[in-house]
Amino acid sequence: MTVPAFTLDLVADQGETLAKVDGQPLHAWTSWLRIRSDVTGFVPPSYSPADDELTGFVPPVFEDDGIAVLVHGRDHQDLDRRGVGLFHARLELAALEALHAAVTRISWAALPRPIGYDVHASQLRLRYACDRTLIDRSFNARSANFITALGPLWPMLEDIGARAMRGPSGTLEPGLVISADPEEPLRLTLRAELRNRSIGPVVLNDPRLRRPGDAARLELSIGPAVPGRDDLLPRQWTTLTVPALPDDAPEVVVLAARKRWSVELPWVAPAPGRYLARMRWSDYGGPVSPAPAQVPWMPVPETGLSFVGSGPYPVRGSCRDTVVIAV
Description:
This protein is mainly beta. The protein has two domains: about 5-165, Mago nashi protein (2-Layer Sandwich); about 170-325, Immunoglobulin-like. The chain has three helices and 16 strands. Strands 6-5-1-2-3-4-7-8-13 form a nine-stranded antiparallel beta sheet. Strands 11-10-14-16 form a four-stranded antiparallel beta sheet, with no helix packed on it. A three-stranded mixed beta sheet has the order 12-9-15, with no helix packed on it. The chain is globular.
């Protein structure tokens, strides 16, 4: 069986709109899954002498492959050390056939009106384009009756999204490391990191670059941990000042695969005890100036060639990490 060329989008938005990228609103939480049957799903890693953690294995490429890409701006549960950016998966012919069949078996005109709404749940948009067929439906994540009526299509999309999340293609992962001075244990050093966990380069503003209005892109805070409850935030925070970007430093940073950006800040604990520290990186606007060969935020257009793997990916969104230390 030959699968016709189709594009399927599933967009989940939640929270306020913080930016617009190529006409697409970027919310506090935005995830955009795009599937195309006529774009090969193989994305070659970008090798360089510094990419010593990459292997030389190259998987086979089949002409009937499709691709699923997931643009993920923020973890929906706001968990620590969750990557944000671009993810992808290769879809084989059998998966494309099953997906196409699941869409065409649905009597879209007979679907029930979505019932159920939660202001704190994601607003979803499902769009399918194939030849002269165009399906475009919006519903809330709490519209259980509508989601159930989609039949096997919904679990297929959930599975493809989960598969894509296992393939970082242009992804940043946060990390916070705290170390104590061996001679003066109350003197701590907090190192905030952003690591490129992808097979290719990513591009972002230097986190020390202030946003319009002097808002910080990187925030670090520390405070006494709640006794016996490391899952609770401190009642009193100390916010550390991230140094300003030097005048002679570039505003935009390109990180090669597996490389890190980091900054270290000193802090002196007022007394022995347990302390909880948190870092948060937040930048929805994207690079203030494009890097050479920078790819679009959604690198797989509705038609034409894919840009995945052809240049640095501009990561937009927010991520965090939390660490508890006893001194």
